[in-house]
Design goal:
Shape: globular
Largest sheet: 5 strands, antiparallel
Pfam family, one: CBM_2
GO biological process, one term: polysaccharide catabolic process
Protein name: Glucose/sorbosone dehydrogenase-like protein
GO molecular function: hydrolase activity, hydrolyzing O-glycosyl compounds; polysaccharide binding
Strand content: 35-45%
Number of helices: 3
Keywords: Carbohydrate metabolism, Polysaccharide degradation, Signal
Oligomer: single chain
Length: 516
């Protein structure tokens, strides 16, 4: 399912990514920005609660799952959830009766679950599921681990393979997300073939489905194919290109989703070692190149494959695994009713190792507001929604199902910042304000810089740098902050390494709580 790697110590701080502009003298043009999604209206309008004031919590509602990987909800009035397990079974949960002991589906005889990331990985229900009783499964197939898309006919217990991609050399980076788009077509993510550093250069190649999101029409068959390639797919008619490809330049897009209000696409693409990323694409943005392996996140990837003449769509959010994460778990935009006033229009994601809950929201100015708003149970593998848009999560080990809730909870401290970019450097001024009703005696900020970026000078803080992780504590004279009071500090950093890497930082949003 997921790539594991060393993650370093987990920060005891809330994080918020702030992206500064790319350096003006970058050696190559920076990735192009993704178009901002349309602003929904009416009942689906975005909430206005500031993201740092949100808190996400979970309540376990079922246990006994065996390495769950994905969950979906049939829109058939039953209130059920379908949950895939790595070995090849699909379990059913209902809030009134709990987890059914007998699997709804068992395709273990077809599934290769060898290695940590192989198995039954994805499930999708078509719009006509209630009538057709068809569903779609993504899995690694016996005998050689080929990533496979199949239709399962529930009323006949029959598995029909639709499309497969060879994936024998390495067991990791299989992707596996399935989702029907607002256009009724089926979208499927496939990783770059595994290993490390894109050894097949699959991300930038169009003659393979590795490192792609594909788009097909499963309501029809065309010729010898049990599906049809939509005529408006971006590479139909392109020599030596697979016509099923919708997006390319992906590493391991383990989870993606469509915003039910505006049809935009959100992708959580698992990184190599420096950056995890989230991409957001406007509806119909087929043919976009998301950068891998020329870029990892916003940073040029050393030894990556950079074909000439390519234009890259940059991520809207990145974070460093050196802040405790290891594998981004892409989620959904909240479009339910229960918490609409708090998180309506907000994208929620997490990380397999750090359990951080990230909240992202378009700011209406072409950028994104971002904040860390809580913790999930350990090793969450997937976020799903009920038919009416409420959130659930499953975690890998020990195998539980968790309902997600949201509340408003003001931070003890607010951190405001001003970021100025110059050449290869960044100047950051910070103001820490005590928003509580008791004095703060000591505070700490912790954040990573871009790799290769070094602190040149700092003021009003005791600052240390280890690798790309910065720890800034009070300077003694400004340790005490009375209620409503503020302290100011800052630093200047210069990128002494790759000049094309963007100056940026990630900082603690609740500094006072850390230093108490």
């Amino acid at each position: 399912m997921l790539r594991r790697r060393w993650t370093g110590p987990l920060l005891l701080a809330t994080l918020l990514t702030v992206l500064a502009p790319l350096p003006a003298q970058a050696a190559e043009p920076p990735p192009a920005a993704a178009p901002a999604a349309a602003t929904p209206s009416g009942a689906a309008a975005a909430a206005t609660v500031p993201l740092p004031s949100l808190s996400a919590t979970t309540t376990q509602v079922a246990s006994g799952l065996r390495r769950p990987t994905a969950l979906v909800a049939p829109d058939d009035g039953t209130g059920r959830l379908f949950i895939t397990e790595k070995s090849g079974t699909v379990r059913v949960y209902h809030p009134d009766t709990g987890l059914a002991p007998t699997p709804l589906i068992d395709i273990t005889s077809a599934v290769d679950e060898s290695g940590n990331e192989r198995g039954l990985l994805g499930i999708a229900l078509p719009p006509d599921f209630a009538a057709s009783q068809d569903l779609y499964l993504a899995y690694t197939a016996l005998p050689d681990g080929a990533v496979t898309l199949a239709r399962y006919r529930l009323d006949a217990s029959r598995l029909e393979v639709l499309l497969s991609q060879e994936h024998a050399e390495y067991s990791n980076h299989n992707g596996g997300q399935l989702a029907f788009g607002p256009d009724g077509k089926l979208y499927w993510s496939i990783g770059d073939g595994g290993g490390s550093g894109d050894p097949f250069r699959a991300g930038q190649r169009l003659d393979t489905l590795l490192g792609k999101i594909v788009r097909i029409d499963v309501t029809r068959s065309c010729g010898t194919l049990p599906y049809c390639v939509p005529g408006d797919n971006p590479f139909v008619g392109t020599a030596n290109a697979r016509p099923e490809i919708w997006l390319y330049g992906l590493r391991n897009p383990w989870r993606f989703s469509f915003d039910q209000a505006d049809g935009s696409l959100w992708i959580g693409d698992v990184g190599q070692g420096h950056w995890e990323e989230v991409d957001h694409l406007a509806p119909g943005q087929g043919g976009a190149n998301l950068g891998w392996s020329c870029y990892e996140g916003l940073e040029k990837f050393e030894g990556g494959h950079c074909p000439p003449g390519e234009e890259y769509t940059k991520p809207v959010f990145t974070y460093s695994p050196y802040t405790g994460g290891c594998s981004v778990i892409g989620g959904h935009v909240y479009r339910g009713e229960k918490y609409a006033a708090l998180v309506g229009g907000t994208y929620i994601a997490t990380d397999y190792c750090s359990s951080t809950v990230w909240a992202l929201r378009p700011d209406g100015r072409g950028g994104y507001d971002q904040a860390e708003i809580g913790k999930t149970p350990t090793q969450v593998t997937s976020i799903g929604t009920t038919a009416d848009g409420e959130f659930y999560m499953v975690n890998d080990l020990p195998g539980g199902l968790h309902r997600v809730s949201f509340t408003r909870e003001e931070p003890t401290c607010r951190v405001d910042r001003t970021v100025r970019s110059w050449g290869t450097g960044t100047t950051v001024d910070l103001t820490v304000t005590n928003t509580g009703d008791t004095p703060v005696n000591g505070w700490t900020l912790q954040f990573p810089l871009a790799f290769g970026q070094k602190i040149v000078s700092d003021w009003n803080t005791d600052l240390t740098q280890l690798s790309n992780v910065i720890t800034a504590t009070d300077a003694g004279h400004n340790a005490t902050i009375p209620p409503g009071g503020s302290v100011t500090l800052g630093y200047l950093a210069d990128h002494t390494g790759d000049a094309s890497a963007p100056p940026r930082f990630t900082l603690n949003e609740d500094a006072c709580a850390v230093g108490r």
